[in-house]
Amino acid sequence: MRGRAAALGGLRRRRRIEVGADMTMEQDGRGPAAPAEAAAVRRAVAASAVGNATEWFDYGIYAYGVTYISAALFPGEAAQATLFALATFAISFLVRPLGGFFWGPLGDRLGRKSVLAFTIVLMAAATFLVGLLPTHEAVGFWAPLMLVILRMVQGFSTGGEYGGAATFMAEYAPDDRRGFFGSFLEVGTLAGFSFGALLMLGFSLLLGNEAMHEWGWRLPFLVAAPLGLVGLYLRAKIEDTPVFREAEALEAESASRQPGLKTLFTGYWRPLLVMSGLVIALNVVNYTLLSYMPTYLERRLGLSTQQALLVPIIGMLCMMALLPFAGAASDRVGRKPLWAASLVGLFVLAIPLYHLMGAGLSGAIVGFAVLGLLYAPQLATISATFPAMFPTRVRFAGFAVAYNVATSLFGGTAPAANSWLIERTGDAAVPAYYMMAACVVGLIALAFTAETAGQSIRGDAGAPASSRRGGAVRGGQGTVSGNLEA
């Protein structure tokens, strides 16, 4: 204990802490002060956003091409094959928690950059290979089986990708602009999703329905390979986050051990539960609104395939325009007010907006756009809200575990659940009820969420007060490095 106190004292006496070739961290916890800060943050934003775009490009082309995929790879009538395809989409989410348990602690031990390099390669490869699968007519049950395996690989890699990218961006961003910079991770989300949707729409218009069913649906999946290589290149050109390197240096000097999953669950169960509640609200809306919408508009509301693809694209472009403004607003007024406004707005307006979408193409465009704009404040503040709930040495693991468990159970299953419930009830407003229930869960979790806007996320920021002791966070398997603020 005396040796650790001396080590901490030595670090506190330093006016500046060198954490890498391109950046020097100031001791006050307010982030990089060197002139290279802006360039480094821009590189971090690009590296995180492109990887996230690759992840969501896969979801976009799968969700928007489900009509073609179900016909090519699954047996049975159209409705049954579509349900099988949506169930396969959900299966990939069942392995996301395994990815979170694997990649999260690894990212806290080896660094964010190393894990993100692996995950983007796995994601891009799995998506690319879907485009090469033989049809059910050619190989029988092997076609859906191979698709399930590739979706599971994609889900496993995503279990580390999203939490790692959000943590990476949050730890690079200045404390007073974390909401603004973090919003660009979700710009990448919508850009990837929109790009996938636009490719599907463009190829369907260019090639026609028959060619799309025969071979055209494969082309967007093949684009994942160059997209993944671009993301890998950007991540190779930037160092790990200054916050992680600083914590790593402190840990090495104080001879503390890296905490494991036991420490995460025993010491941080409360933020795990709170974050899970927020993620349930976030991703039930996300996957109901973005992933399921093309199928819903075509199968339930009778729009053409092209119209069903066009409506969400217009809505997502509106959302992308709002995200940076919502992120910047969260830096000024806080994360919680934006979350509260979003959740309440969705709860109140979900049913009338879904009824509006049933009034034809114009109603669908307006209804989806308003739902998307109401949802955008949640999306914009993910990278600012969730990483701040955990201290540096368990941040990746905490985010990955909470996010992926909640998403696998409630978010990724939303398209299949909505489809099944509509089949059983005949009520086209089921997605609205589903979203409203999730918003209630989110509001309950929000009541237990601490406001972190403008606060440092270095060291033990985000740790429960009872676990802090002399600048350290004590855990069942060692000591998590403490905050370096004097």
Automatic annotation (TrEMBL):
Q: Where in the cell is it found?
A: Cell membrane
GO MF terms held by the record: symporter activity
**Which Pfam families did the record assign?**
MFS_1
Which residue windows are transmembrane per the record? 83-103, 115-133, 139-159, 180-203, 215-234, 267-289, 309-326, 338-357, 363-382, 394-412, 432-450
> Is Ribonucleoprotein there in the keyword field?
no
Q: Which Gene3D superfamilies match?
A: MFS general substrate transporter like domains
Q: Does the keyword Metal-binding apply?
A: no
* Recorded GO CC terms: plasma membrane
Kindly indicate where the leader peptide sits in this chain. none
- Write down the PROSITE patterns for this protein, in alphabetical order: MFS, SUGAR_TRANSPORT_1, SUGAR_TRANSPORT_2
Q: Which InterPro entries match?
A: H+-coupled_symporters, MFS, MFS_dom, MFS_trans_sf, Sugar_transporter_CS
Membrane topology per the record?
Answer: Multi-pass membrane protein
UniProt keyword terms in alphabetical order = Cell membrane, Membrane, Symport, Transmembrane, Transmembrane helix, Transport
Residue stretches making up the Major facilitator superfamily (MFS) profile domain: 44-454
Where is the stretch described as Disordered?
A: 459-486
- Low complexity bias (residue ranges): 459-470
State the family it belongs to. Belongs to the major facilitator superfamily. Metabolite:H+ Symporter (MHS) family (TC 2.A.1.6) family.
Name of the featured protein: General substrate transporter
Organism phylogeny: Bacteria, Pseudomonadati, Pseudomonadota, Alphaproteobacteria, Caulobacterales
